[in-house]
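Appendix C reproduces, verbatim, an entry submitted by the partner laboratory led by Prof. M.T., so that reviewers can inspect both the input and the predicted structure.
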Amino acid sequence: MRLSPEAYGGRSLTAVTMAAHEVGHAIQHHQGYAPLLARTRLVAVARQAEKLGAVLMMAAPFLFVLTACAFTYVAASLASILNLGRWLVILRR
């Protein structure tokens, strides 16, 4: 059982409440209390999702900037094709 020094050595109602709360968790863990086990698994999943989310948030600006660059090349290609068509019309006169 790990308690902060304030909870372990404290004499306030808050210290006693914190210690009782942690003892309750220890009892639940010892008995294999299903909701506590489910919560523990969900916390592990949430941590991984948080890491993935952070990576995606950092990568998003680069991915969107690269998409914008690709569209710039597409737009330049279309402009070149239209310009070529214009010159063909001019030269056929």
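The CA atoms of residues 18 and 83 lie 76 Å apart. Additional entries are available on request from the coordinating office.
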